[in-house]
Specification:
Helices cover 12% and strands 60% of the residues. It has 155 residues and is mainly β. Strand 8 and strand 9 form a beta hairpin. The longest helix is centred in the first third of the chain and has 18 residues.
């Protein structure tokens, strides 16, 4: 799984270098069900319209007797007409692939497709940075029940 995460991350970095304009970011936070902290990265890969974009991301969660490697592709819809003190809300969904590795040797690793609902707020800090906060709700059996995410995009 580590190899898969590295390959996906390298593809994301390479596509950024080729396109030259795709923002990338770092993300982290807390996931429950199982409980644990996670870190990761993302790429704002494709604008389908001014409101919609595709955001692939990778995350590594550790704690609660298991580690989870996630590779996800999210679709975000930004509510452009809403401005909440400079914060712009967005919502969407995410299709992903989770690999669960258990700390004890009794349980085998599990590889599962997952679906998550996403809601968040983002705020442009300056020409080169944007912060965001996200709530991810697991809609399938092998997703985290809930994830609280914070991150920073670089342009």
């Amino acid at each position: 799984m580590k190899r898969l995460s590295i390959v996906v991350l390298l593809i994301m970095i390479a596509s950024t270098a080729v396109a030259g304009t795709n923002p990338f970011g770092v993300r982290g936070g807390y996931g429950s069900g199982p409980d644990g902290l996670f870190v990761g990265g993302q790429l704002l890969a494709k604008d389908l319209s001014p409101e919609m974009n595709i955001v692939p991301n990778v995350e590594f969660q550790f704690g609660d007797g298991a580690s989870i490697y996630s590779v996800n592709a999210a679709l975000h819809y930004a509510f452009l007409s809403s401005n909440m003190n400079g914060f712009q809300p967005y919502a969407g969904g995410e299709l992903g692939f989770n690999i669960w590795n258990y700390d004890n040797t009794i349980l085998e690793s599990q590889n599962k497709m997952v679906i998550n609902g996403v809601a968040g707020m983002k705020k442009r800090m300056d020409d080169k940075k944007e912060m965001f906060f996200e709530l991810k709700l697991g809609l399938s059996d092998w997703s985290n029940d809930l994830k609280l995410v914070a991150g920073l995009n670089f342009f």
